[in-house]
Amino acid sequence: MTDHQSDIFADALQRLESAAVHAAVDPETITRLRQPEQVIQVAVPVRMDDGSLKVFSGYRVRYNSTRGPTKGGLRYHPQVDMGEVKALAFWMTFKCAVVGIPYGGGKGGVSVNPKELSRMELERLSRSFIARIAPFIGPDTDIPAPDVYTNATIMGWMADEYAKIAGKQQPGVITGKPLALGGSLGRDDATGRGAYYCIKQLERLKRWDPSRIRVAVQGWGNAGQHVARLLHADGYRIVAASDSRGGIYKPEGFDVPSLIHFKNETRQLKGVYCKGSVCELIDHQPVTNEELLELDVDLLLPSAVENVITEENAARIKAPFIVELANGPVTSAGDAILQQQGKLVVPDILANAGGVTVSYFEWVQNRAGLSWELEEVHSRLQTIMTREFGAIYQLMEEIGTDMRTAAYTHALRRLGDAIQASGTMGWFTDSE
Q: Which one from 71, 86, 95, 107 is the annotated catalytic residue?
């Protein structure tokens, strides 16, 4: 394992040790959660459009299945490696426990730059990958979903490939599918909407006037766009946004629907105002992703990739409130500095749990042969996110710690109950 691989996983495990201090769970719970149940690395051969053959490295980790089948996304990114996938599967284990859904944690991905592939190559990659991991997944075993640079179309290809291998339709094996192939209404904006419901709770607790709250969004993908859209509609000022190429900043705030329209039409993020399909550039300041994090704003939403706030830059973060839509955007060393400065961080395992929650809804609908209305999906999601945010915020105040440690403690207690219910040393050595 490379230094990068071991470091990111070791960093994830530090969260476990911090929560163990407060959770009062059986020691065997911690022992079990220090390593994944199953780790798979596969070679993914793809015939390219020019006739050549390329072989990509693919990964799938099932971290812990005590509370149910493992669940987690599949990402396509050049930096995917085993350490990252193990860390993400670890986080998924806690994320599912945080929101109380009957899943364990899993994660997977392929080390590839999908922007360099044609659409036909992307389909062949997706089908080849699912063929390699098919023996390890299933609606009662391990259920993949979309993640970074994967989407509903890719999930549809994967579900179709799995059905061919299984010899029957198994819609519950993959979530995040297109609606016409068994997907759920409300899945498209679920991650951003879940974070939005958390922010609305902060608004209530802190008595915010939305029009006075300046928001910076790092990452203009699915999650970042949707949370920005919902907040903008409520009157929040979205003053900065960025994608992988860089960012834009305007202290007066942007018209978010215009930014979303232009990005989705041109694949470029620019400061624009659109009327219908006609977009005009407006005055704005270009910023780097690094500069965006350090802007003088009230609410920072890191919504891209992990490890963007570190020991090196954490002291320069000005935003008093940070809501993590990305997985692991703050390192443990960076986190310690943010806590020393009195920042309130709503952690990823709560803030971005809307995605896996609505994936769970999709799985339930697939298995029962149902299709819920959009209002029902939104209502169920709001109930869960509001309930768990409240429980974690209250626990944070009770144990006098930060919100991340409270969230891990909350999840660890649920995991501990499940592990202890299957029998630990105390049960087996009790002579009574």
A: 107
